[in-house]
Amino acid sequence: MANTDSVNVRVLSLNCWGIRYLSKHCPQRYAMIGDMLCREEHDIVLLQEVWSEKDYLSLKRKLACSHPHSHYFKSGVIGSGLAIFSKHRIHDTFLFRYSLNGYPYMAHHGDWFGGKAVGMAILNIGSLTANVYVTHLHAEYCRDKDSYLPHRVVQAWELQQFIRHTSAGADVVILGGDLNMHPEDLGNRLLRSYTGLRDSYLETAKFDGCEDGMTLIADNPFISKKELLPFDKGIRIDYILFKGSSKMDVYCDFMSTTKGSVPDHPFPYSDHEALTAGLRLETHTTTETGRDSQSKNKDSAAGKLAELVDIVTEARTEVKVGLHCAQSMRYTAKRTGVMGLALLFLEVAIATVPWLALGAEQPFPRTSFYLLAALCFAILLTTFLLYIFYTIELKSLQGAEDQMRLAVGSLQEKLRGFPLAQPHNAQRRPPKAHEPSAFDPEE
Amino acid sequence: MANTDSVNVRVLSLNCWGIRYLSKHCPQRYAMIGDMLCREEHDIVLLQEVWSEKDYLSLKRKLACSHPHSHYFKSGVIGSGLAIFSKHRIHDTFLFRYSLNGYPYMAHHGDWFGGKAVGMAILNIGSLTANVYVTHLHAEYCRDKDSYLPHRVVQAWELQQFIRHTSAGADVVILGGDLNMHPEDLGNRLLRSYTGLRDSYLETAKFDGCEDGMTLIADNPFISKKELLPFDKGIRIDYILFKGSSKMDVYCDFMSTTKGSVPDHPFPYSDHEALTAGLRLETHTTTETGRDSQSKNKDSAAGKLAELVDIVTEARTEVKVGLHCAQSMRYTAKRTGVMGLALLFLEVAIATVPWLALGAEQPFPRTSFYLLAALCFAILLTTFLLYIFYTIELKSLQGAEDQMRLAVGSLQEKLRGFPLAQPHNAQRRPPKAHEPSAFDPEE
Question: How far is B255 from chain A, CA to nearest CA, in Å?
Fold first, then answer.
């Protein structure tokens, strides 16, 4: 399928770990990143964790010649951390903030303050329209007891919705970012199956990089090996995904990652490895559509639909677990608040009743009285804020669950349109281990 | 252009004013609304301010036969209030929460708690795909000194972005809702110009309803006439907008509104009037594309682009006003916080220094000490929360402003592609009298 009309697009994705004053060697690393981007001249650069706008602006100045077009997505308290640099004109941008993103009181995890989101930029690559997405999902701090899993699943759900619904007019779709999910994690399967996005690591013709395409590796000097356990060599959580359209086919010719160090420099660009994918866009050539191939296509479409039903059902279960947790947290907040109120009433009663009834000297020590009252007010305020927060969380989880239920119903309806396609199998096929599905039910 | 293949779609939009226990005659009005919807059998029903899920569920039960498909959009603390009922299958839904929506401490206005959003449902009408949107923007409490204007403009900006980017695959687009904007308000012009949505009141062949299509009228018994002033008869702030696609043409055959009362009932359905639009969808027939018409089309496209540049620039100015306000509010919060902290230090110093230095009896009255300390802590906590809140507001406003600047640049770039089209007019059209345009060619 060699085509002289092909367009080559090189894409880089990097989580910059750019927390000013906290991330190690932050200014030096930004200087290294800027030099590398200037030199390498990728078509599209997708950065995450550029937490300070100043760092974005200094990169923008440095890349003014190599990447004249750029956009920084603002969100949350300290920003979304998402930035895009491009050789091609960006003619529109749009930001979708995830409805759930951790808890504000988990300040040491900091995700809530980051205002995690997915940013979209619409680029013109020659005469083609490319929808480019950059995102960063909630981190996974403990794989065994991952209390953020429902939040991340809802983020993956919203990410696939956003991409599916906004990319209908695009010739090519590219997503890069730190998904904080392993390749076969639920959210990742949901994203790939529903959008039809393909993983450049799995699709590439040539690969040069870390073993198994890992992007958070034990050999990186900024990584604490303990935190990676039980994955002693590392994990793959950063991705460049892509898909074509009815008009364009997309192929991944090569892919590479950095390997935990940068030649001639004392440390790497970041705690994550940088990913580069070389994509080739070619005008779609229609293949034969004989009866056999049509029937085969139908079978495979039905199989993929059935798989998708399974995945969405699994996601629904996970969201329900989150719902249960949020409900019990809200209940706890409510109960604690009621106890605080009761304590306050009790205190006021003890303090005032003798004065009212006996007129005797105040028996309640003043210091204790005020300290206790302050405690009660603090409890009331905290539990009130928590109650509001958990209510918002509940609404978001319920909303996602409703949408998933509706989606499953709609997918099953579609499935009934394939009466001959593997009736047993299609209705509830167990998900396969690692099948990179590229099915787009919208098509 | 009579076409036998036409499809008729009747759409209703109603702000239900459904605040349990607070809105007058709420249960009776819901019963009336349910009866009417059952009887009228509109194809699509778009409801706003259905604040309680219980009310949605009871409507759902009542409409199970006439409208088997429905969706309730959940968001914020008490929900988005948005619901959709349909005779046609809803096969996908998506919710976009506006990044700005008033202030939580303006509890008596309540908008913040509602989690205002735009809900999308994808319907199959026969073989056609309809993208149906329902929304409710921030209320306008005082037209002369509308402190929420920047928020509403950003909402209108995000609404047009959402519709534009998600409707590429649709054959027909329908938006219904309470926009809380007059027909020629900035946000409304922005929405209509950018998306190409047409106003059914302006497009309808037949109209039956209130004067000037008003939807909040003085004759409605739930309306306080004072609040409407200076518009003594009423205002038009609810809309049904629509557009077709390259495949389908859409026409509005008739439109109607209720008129402040319902026959045989003591009061109307709501404080807002209900809108009904009869839309006719027809397969698009290509018209002649002679040279003259092409050149005319180009001229009109350039004119529209130039107008859009003006509108986006005006919106940008409004957002900048909001930015300025948010910045000064954040500064005030910061300053007050610092003063609270200084007061606390002063108090601690006064209380502890004599004890440290002189060992004398505590000179600071205990009661005052604790009360003052509590006050300081309250100030610190409140200003801290406000600071965080205003920072989020600033980020959202800055984000919208960045996107608008990029959009203006991109539109101007497009405009340069029309070299012959009204060179003076198109490149820099003087703003109209009532259109305080602040053209800022920053790019």
Answer: 30
